[in-house]
Amino acid sequence: ADQSFDVVVLGAGPGGYSAAFRAADLGLKVALVERYSTLGGVCLNVGCIPSKALLHTAAVVEEAAKMAEHGISFGKPDIDLDKLRKFKEGVVGKLTGGLAGMAKARKVAVVTGIGAFVGPNHIEVETKDGKQVLQFASAIIAAGSQSVKLPFAPEDERIVDSTGALLLKSVPKKMLIIGGGIIGLEMGTVYSTLGARLDVVEMLDGLMQGADRDLVKVWQKMNEHRFDNIMLKTKTVGIEAKKDGIWVTFEGEKAPKEPQRYDLVLQAVGRSPNGKNIGADKAGVQVGDRGFIPVNSQMRTNVPHIFAIGDIVGQPMLAHKAVHEGHVAAEVAAGQKSHFDATVIPSVAYTDPEVAWVGLTEDEAKKQGRKITKGMFPWAASGRAIANGRDEGFTKLLFDEETHRIVGGGIVGTNAGDMIGEVALAIEMGADMVDIGKTIHPHPTLGESIGMAAEVAEGVCTDLP
Ligand code: FAD
User: Fold this and answer.
1) pTM score, whole prediction
2) Please, which residues have CB within 8 angstroms of residue 296's CB and are 6 or more apart in sequence?
3) Atom 36 (ligand 1): residue with closest C-alpha?
4) Which of 128, 254, 270, 454 could pair with 231 as two cysteines, CB 3.0-4.6 Å apart?
5) 443 is catalytic
6) β-pair type (372-378, 394-400)
7) Beta-sheet strand order (sheet of 372-378)
8) Which family does it belong to (predicted)?
9) Is pLDDT at 1 greater than 70 in this prediction?
């Protein structure tokens, strides 16, 4: 072997870099293998961060338009796509550059190239200067996921996945989003604010699956104007690239009979793990049929000195989950007795308004036959939301009927994502409705609505409008 390490991390997304940095901080000699020239993986390069740079811009544009009602008009926005793209690239560059600095400061050896196991203690990396073999005592697989492509979709630059959509080459007149999940709806928000008309097609019976239906209703009411057609319980069965556009055929309850024409088609039908592309069998690591790698609560695979974390180990495929799993794997590799033991993992759609949820939803509680007490606080009663001119939202908390402990919560409204962490903390701490209701929240804030929702559940906040 060319070089020997305590830990080799395969993949430098949020899971991989967090694991590498924690392992180095614990005194281990670490290599971080990444096929792309920058660190940060999907999240920083083509996921969370660039999408939020564009979504923030879109939210400001929408907000500016609403200011006319406050007596201040900005007129029609003048959109310079080149500049917007540069802004987004600058945001990504700042963060990925920061990671490179953090790796260097910790003496983490960054090896750029495609890596694969060649044995239970060796990973071979194809770098631009040839093959390099890294020997390891422990390895952490953090190779992430990639977007699923519909098998019948032809190669055409007008048919993109989220990575293609983030390039923002142009603004189409008419755009189809295949898949009504968070990623599709976030990208749709950006393109619609920039001027595109949207259609969305979803196989299931509602958009933003996983979120509480009450929350989604509010989002949908505020966003209906972006869509010409919301096709639920409908399948995309054919895509044809023609000179005059992309023609798409649908099947199902709300399917148009004739093929429809689009200028841009976004495939957002889910992500599939990279478990099958890393030579796992050479190290004896088991990989499931769909490419996920099974692990225990210490993030160990069936081969005890090889760990796996992040999107490649399963749902939810979210950056904050990957980071925490990365820390656990690194700590265990360093000899600590850590376990991944999160009770809940929050989800956020950074749309306008934002939709955020954590723990049980009302539907899930019902399905489990669990008796709950609900506390709903409508933002129409929040001074801050009214002052912001954005009082369409609400905060909803669910408590166990018997113990009064919080088991779930959801927020729809501006900044919902920034607030849901408090609900996650309350669940992790086993807080009950009095704990939350008696916690003094600053006034006037949107966060107050969390305390108020708990008081509604207690029955002590009865003076709602
Ligand atoms: P990844 O980020 O996928 O990183 C894996 C890395 O491994 C990649 O850099 C890849 O190049 C590298 N790699 C793979 N195989 C090899 C190999 N053989 N050799 C060398 N390198 C290899 N999550 C959120 O929490 N919040 C959000 O707002 C959010 N927004 C998103 C928006 C979009 C458009 C997308 C696509 C995703 C979004 N996600 C979001 C999901 C988030 O990006 C992922 O959950 C997260 O990146 C997973 O981290 P990871 O470390 O498991 O893997």
Assistant:
1) 0.97
2) none
3) 47
4) 254
5) yes
6) antiparallel
7) 347-349, 354-359, 406-413, 394-400, 372-378
8) Belongs to the class-I pyridine nucleotide-disulfide oxidoreductase family.
9) no
